[in-house]
TrEMBL record, chain A:
Residues 1-19 form the signal peptide. Mitochondrial trifunctional enzyme catalyzes the last three of the four reactions of the mitochondrial beta-oxidation pathway. The mitochondrial beta-oxidation pathway is the major energy-producing process in tissues and is performed through four consecutive reactions breaking down fatty acids into acetyl-CoA. Among the enzymes involved in this pathway, the trifunctional enzyme exhibits specificity for long-chain fatty acids. Belongs to the thiolase-like superfamily. Thiolase family. It is found in: Endoplasmic reticulum; Mitochondrion inner membrane; Mitochondrion outer membrane. Residues 70-340 form the Thiolase N-terminal domain. PANTHER family: ACETYL-COA C-ACYLTRANSFERASE, TRIFUNCTIONAL ENZYME SUBUNIT BETA, MITOCHONDRIAL. Keywords: Acetylation, Acyltransferase, Endoplasmic reticulum, Fatty acid metabolism, Lipid metabolism, Membrane, Mitochondrion, Mitochondrion inner membrane, Mitochondrion outer membrane, Signal, Transferase, Transit peptide. Pathway: Lipid metabolism; fatty acid beta-oxidation. It catalyses: decanoyl-CoA + acetyl-CoA = 3-oxododecanoyl-CoA + CoA; tetradecanoyl-CoA + acetyl-CoA = 3-oxohexadecanoyl-CoA + CoA; an acyl-CoA + acetyl-CoA = a 3-oxoacyl-CoA + CoA; octanoyl-CoA + acetyl-CoA = 3-oxodecanoyl-CoA + CoA. It comes from Cyprinus carpio. Gene3D superfamilies: 3.40.47.10. Its main location: endoplasmic reticulum. GO terms for molecular function: acetyl-CoA C-acyltransferase activity; acetyl-CoA C-myristoyltransferase activity. This is Trifunctional enzyme subunit beta, mitochondrial.
TrEMBL record, chain B:
The keyword Lyase applies. It comes from Cyprinus carpio (Common carp). It is found in: Mitochondrion inner membrane. GO terms for biological process: fatty acid beta-oxidation. This is Trifunctional enzyme subunit alpha, mitochondrial. In the central section; belongs to the 3-hydroxyacyl-CoA dehydrogenase family. Its main location: mitochondrion. Pathway: Lipid metabolism; fatty acid beta-oxidation.
Length: 490, 722
């Protein structure tokens, strides 16, 4: 990892903070008087339409004969906080513990009823490399419940959930807890490779002379640390840089990106104020207050957004701190069961977890196009069309990335040239799309986002009375995921 | 031709008659017309200059335009026209932004640096440079005057004297471009098309910014830059630089290349005597250089190279998707390396694990060195390495489309290999043999399918040497040839296709020269003296060093084989000298000793006293009439040239162009002479024949001119090149 990369990441992190700070002051100003800027922009993005308008479906249900129905019983998450805020002194397993305990409280699940725990994480704390097990023990789960950790960048908790689905479908488990945690307030910063080598040799050095000569070999340069970067290992390109290039490739303007970011924040604010974000649990942070709200939601004005300088491609890029998801701490957890077991235990499930796909493509030029590839594939698998879907929840890594995906999905040329498909799948209608905000505004703790998306789909289906929901997300490494979720009959 | 967007005139360059944009007379006239119109349009506040061609901004001046000139004055006036246009561009009342994607070379770069602002894409295809020196010319449209001011004296010398390509990130650091733009991936259009559009959008924004004074051209100078500027401001320092550069050029070029010296003169005049004098010197020197034989020779090589980078045998029936290389030695591993790095799956087979491990390491090192130079990422390296399958058996040979054998140069071993391989390969698979001297038909004698057998003679080190000599027998099918050429082109080679015979073309020309070199050594010319005589003639590597590089054992082998095939004509030095050296372990660089001793540390090469002792025991008396320095030089060169002409006469060589390319790119024949055939043309066949007759009197038939050479000597209107 080069120094300049580290610098970019640090600067970006700082610019996130400073942007957020300047935006927060403006929110206050706005609250006192002028809200018209926000209202105007909201009109552009239509609000959800009443459920009576939903069309008849291609399929009545996705249940298949001879295949077990797998249900989402419930899902919770800790408030998502900007890194370096209230969670700053915790460790990742503390956050994970909070989510797991929250799930137990919410569902009243007997601790020994859980057969297995699968948890996702991206930036690993080396002390708790199997964070699933550490968090489960700390959350008071039975020590007889095995737990393992999965990682797949931003779709890690999707992977945790589909692993759970697999375990249940294969008849190995009946009740599995899945989730994910990300803790960006503290990341492992390592000594340089040369320093590590010297230190490891030091352990083996037998004589004082040998130790002294090893110590003597240490040079000032060896002391410079290695920081993790949100960069592709294979291409060394930071994700923000790739997102900027992607936006440019699809001709997404700065204005479009800022508008979408504002939409996300505006809708998130509305959802938060309207009490829609019921998956959020309260968390008493040791030594601090009780946290019960996400703290990254900051609707601003277009003028304020327009003032920000590009964060990655300078000076002519379009991706800024405000139209990117910010570094976030947070954890999520869901309870997944076979339908029979859930019913036997007296639960009223929220949704069926149906077909899902993972896709992957070129990690350089198509790093963030996962949703474009995954959506038509999972629809095909389910026998549904885009019109059948009532609720879309896409992971918003960057406003530019979302807009690029929407344009790609609308393009026959792209479908034919790069996806080997005859026609485009079409872009989701905006009135069904991320209507309670998204990763841009709610925050994006990498490995916790997947569960948030699935739980939100379940809640939105219940609230809006729709039948089918679609989750889609991109992830580092040029990978992607999509899942179809069916509402549980109310 | 141009479009106005938001008060920015976008000029899109596109020569419809060619794959690249060149600054032809026509293009220049058009450009002047367009610029005048733009300057006359009050609504236009700034200009963007961009090419519509995906891989090319402007590739340079039109060489044919320069070649068509009959006199130096004509070329000088061409240069002055160019200077005048770019002067207007430089003094433009509104800012002009050059938006560069693809090659921006020679006149193209001179155009770009006359503009007020430069933005380049970071595409792999984007290169900037002044390659004129490689054609024996100089940047004749203000380049020698503007570049030193822009990038500083040392960097300007480096660019113009080496002609090297500069990548975008380096160009930004040097101050050659102001901004870089990332190439884009797939979007709603092809990446290439969209990248150009994006570059244009960014350039238009900057043009607006420049017009509105929101963007400034001046870059803040760092401390290092300030110090450098200060130091360069001191006349004695500059004087010292001119002197150092001059002596360095003299040392490297032996004074055989006029262009670098003229470039120094132009830069010096411009800086010391001012613009007017500088521009005048530039245009005059440009005219003079264009009339030199060196420039003609280098331009001839350039054209030849272009010809030899085409497949003249049509499209092969099948693409080679899987190649197998037999023998993981220096050659085999080199061939594998240049194949996998173009994305073709390759099997590298050897008979021993040690041999295989060595070959595998060679390929890895070759690629890893590129990651150190940052021309390859470690991931790309790993991806390329994954295409290589090192193995000891014939597994998967049933899927090979071509096998290239690079095993030991011994006919019986080659026969064994042919039979083994033919038992496992599919019917369509081509069998190519990498031999430097064994006739292909003799190797093909063991084959059941001689139409699929062909010679592919690579040069060592394979990843550096550009030439590939392809040898066809009268049984080789046209499709086999087409396929071999296609593979060679894919490997990035310059290709000559020659007929079969002992030593084919290249080895056959080299052998008599080496025989003559051995004779000179026996006559008491030391290896160092021999080297300085050959490099003084323009060979990049001296004859004694060359023998060490090729390997004394290989030289002995070839000398003996070809001696048997061609008789006394290939005599001269005693083959026993070489054999004795091999016996003593003096096999050249690879064994640490040859004519010289190769130590790990000392830079100064020491003559191997063991080899000197051997030479003494084979001492010959030098005939004084033909032993002056110049005589020795011409003895070496005339044998080379005569053999080359004989190859053409016998039909081994299809044409003089391939003869020149083969000699220069494969054997290091002096590039300033343009190859043996151009040398005969420029030196005069009659004069060469006269010299040879004199040598013939002293030594006999080794110097008997061949019939074709005699024909040319008799009739001065006969020339190899028009």
């Amino acid at each position: 990892m080069s120094l300049s990369l580290i610098r970019t990441v640090l600067l970006t992190a700082f610019s996130f903070c400073s942007a957020a700070r300047s935006l927060s002051t403006s929110v206050h100003l706005q609250a006192q008087g002028n809200v018209s800027g926000v209202m105007l922009t909201c009109e552009k993005w239509k609000m959800p339409i009443p459920f009576s308008q939903y069309n008849s479906k291609s399929k009545k249900t996705l249940a298949k004969p001879g295949v077990k129905n797998i249900v989402l019983v419930d899902g919770v998450r800790t408030p998502f906080l900007q890194s370096g805020t209230t969670y700053a002194d915790l460790m990742p397993h503390d956050l994970a513990r909070a989510a797991l305990q929250g799930l137990l409280n919410r569902t009243g699940l007997p601790k020994d009823a859980v057969d297995y725990i699968v948890y996702g994480t991206v930036i690993q704390e080396v002390k708790t490399s199997n964070v699933a097990r550490e968090a489960a023990l700390g959350a008071g789960f039975s020590d007889k419940t095995p737990a393992h950790t999965v990682t797949m960048a931003c779709i890690s908790s999707n992977q945790a959930m589909t692993t759970a689905v697999g375990l249940i479908a294969a008849g190995q488990c009946d009740a599995v807890v899945a989730g994910g945690v990300e803790f960006m307030s503290d990341v492992p910063i390592r000594h340089s490779r040369k320093m590590r080598k010297t230190m490891l040799s030091l352990n083996k050095a037998k004589t004082l002379g040998a130790r002294l000569s090893l110590l003597g070999s240490i040079r000032l340069a060896h002391l410079s640390p290695e920081l993790p970067a949100v960069a592709e290992f294979s291409t060394a390109e930071t994700m923000g840089h790739s997102a900027d290039r992607l936006a440019a490739a699809f001709g997404v303007s700065r204005l479009e990106q800022d508008e979408f970011a504002l939409r996300s924040h505006t809708l998130a604010k509305k959802a938060q104020d309207g009490g829609m974000l019921s998956d959020v649990i309260s968390f008493k942070v040791p030594g601090r207050d009780i946290v019960s709200k996400d703290n990254g939601i900051r609707p601003a004005t277009m003028e304020q957004l327009a003032k920000l300088k590009p964060a990655f491609i300078k000076p002519h890029g379009t991706v800024t701190a405000a139209n990117s998801s910010f570094l976030t701490d947070g954890a999520s957890a869901v309870l997944i069961m076979s339908e029979e077991k859930a019913l036997a235990m007296g639960y009223k499930p929220k949704a069926y977890l149906r077909d899902f796909v993972y896709v992957s493509q070129d990690p350089k030029d198509q790093l963030l196009l996962g949703p474009t590839y995954a959506t038509p594939k999972v629809l095909e698998k389910s026998g549904l069309t885009l019109n059948d879907i009532d609720v879309f929840e896409f992971h918003e890594a960057f406003a530019g990335q979302i807009m690029a995906n929407l344009k790609a999905m609308e393009s026959d040329w792209f479908a034919q040239t790069y996806m080997g498909r005859k026609t485009k799948v079409g872009a989701p209608p905006m009135e069904k799309f991320n209507t309670w905000g998204g990763s841009l505004s709610l925050g994006h703790p990498f490995a916790a986002t997947g569960c948030r998306l699935v739980t939100t789909v379940a809640h939105r289906l219940q609230k809006e009375g729709g039948q089918y929901g679609l989750v889609a997300a991109c992830a580092a490494g040029g990978q992607g995921h999509a899942m179809v979720i069916e509402a549980y009959p109310q | 031709i141009y479009e106005v967007k938001d008060n920015v005139a976008v000029v899109r360059i596109n020569d419809p008659t060619s794959k690249v944009n060149t600054l032809s007379r026509h293009m220049q006239a058009e450009m002047v017309e367009v610029m005048n119109e733009i300057w006359g349009n009050a609504a236009v506040k700034s200009v963007v200059l961009i090419s519509r061609k995906p891989g090319c901004f402007i590739a340079g001046a039109d060489i044919n335009m320069i070649q068509a000139c009959k006199t130096a004055e004509e070329v000088t006036s061409l240069s002055q026209e160019g200077q005048k246009i770019f002067d207007q561009v430089e003094k433009s009342p509104i800012p002009i932004v050059a938006a560069i994607n693809g090659s921006c070379l020679g006149g193209g770069l001179e155009f770009a640096i006359a503009c007020q602002y430069r933005i380049a894409t970071k595409s792999k295809k984007t290169i900037l440079g002044t390659p004129e020196v490689m054609l024996g010319l100089l940047p004749g449209a203000g380049g020698t005057q503007r570049l030193p001011k822009m990038v500083g004296l040392p960097a300007a010398f480096d660019m113009m004297l080496t002609g090297k390509n500069i990548r975008p990130d380096k160009a930004k650091k040097m101050g050659l471009v102001h901004q870089l733009v990332d190439p884009l991936g797939p979007g709603l259009k092809s990446p290439e098309e969209r990248t150009i559009e994006y570059l244009e959008e960014v350039a238009v924004d900057f043009a607006k910014g420049l017009a509105g004074k929101k963007v400034t051209v001046e870059k803040k100078k760092g401390l290092v830059q300030k110090i450098q500027d200060f130091v360069m401001g001191l006349p004695p320092v500059r004087k010292q630089i001119y002197k150092t550069v001059h002596s360095k050029v003299m040392k490297q070029s032996k004074g055989l290349y006029p262009a670098p010296l003229k470039i120094i003169e132009c830069i010096q005049t411009g800086i010391e005597k001012g613009n007017a004098a500088g521009y005048l010197t530039e245009s005059q020197n440009f005219g003079k250089l264009a009339m030199t034989s060196e420039s003609r020779a280098l331009i001839g090589l350039y054209h030849g190279q272009v010809t030899c980078k085409k497949n003249h045998f049509g499209k092969p029936e099948r693409d080679v998707k899987k190649l197998a290389v037999l023998g993981a030695g220096l050659m085999g591993a080199g061939i594998a390396q240049v194949t996998i790095d173009k994305g073709v799956a390759t099997i590298l087979k050897d008979t021993t694990e040690e041999g295989l491990a060595r070959g595998h390491q060679q390929v890895y090192k070759g690629l890893n060195d590129k990651t150190k130079k940052k021309s390859l990422t470690t991931f790309e390296r790993d991806g390329i390495m994954s295409l290589l399958s090192g193995q000891l058996d014939y597994r998967d040979f049933e899927n090979a489309d071509m096998v290239i054998e690079a095993v030991f140069e011994d006919l019986s071993i080659k026969h064994k290999v042919v039979k083994e391989v033919e038992a496992v390969i599919p019917p369509h698979c081509i069998f190519a043999t990498n031999t430097s001297a064994l006739p292909i038909k003799d190797i093909a004698a063991a084959s059941k399918r001689p139409e699929k057998v062909i010679g592919m003679h690579y040069f060592s080190p394979v990843d550096k040497m550009q030439l590939l000599e392809i040898i066809t027998t009268n049984k080789t099918s046209k499709d086999t040839t087409a396929s071999a050429v296609a593979v060679g082109l894919k490997q990035g080679k310059v290709i000559i296709v020659v007929g079969d015979g002992p030593g084919f073309y290249t080895t056959r020309c080299l052998a008599p020269m080496l025989a003559e070199a051995v004779r000179a050594l026996q006559e008491g010319v030391g290896p160092k003296k021999l080297d300085s005589l050959t490099t003084g003639f323009g060979f990049p590597v001296g004859a004694a060093t060359l023998a060490d590089e090729v390997g004394i054992d290989v030289a002995a082998h070839v000398a003996e084989d070809l001696g048997k095939a061609f008789g006394t004509r290939f005599g001269g030095g005693n083959v026993e000298v070489l054999k004795m050296m091999v016996q003593k372990g003096f096999k050249g660089r690879k064994s640490g000793k040859g004519c010289y001793v190769y130590g790990a540390k000392s830079k100064e090469k020491k003559v191997n006293s063991g080899a000197e002792d051997i030479l003494k025991s084979f001492k010959l008396t030098a005939p004084p009439a033909v032993s002056a320095d110049e005589d020795i030089q011409y003895r070496l060169v005339s044998r080379f040239v005569n053999e080359a002409v004989l190859c053409l006469q016998e039909g081994i060589l299809p044409d003089p162009v391939q003869g020149d390319i083969g000699a220069v790119f494969g054997l290091g024949f002096p590039p300033c002479l343009g190859g043996p055939f151009r040398f005969v043309d420029s030196h005069g066949a009659d004069k060469l024949v006269q010299k040879m007759k004199r040598f013939e009197e002293a030594y006999g038939n080794q110097f008997t001119p061949c019939q074709l050479l005699l024909d040319h000597a008799k009739d001065s209107s006969k020339r190899f090149h028009k």
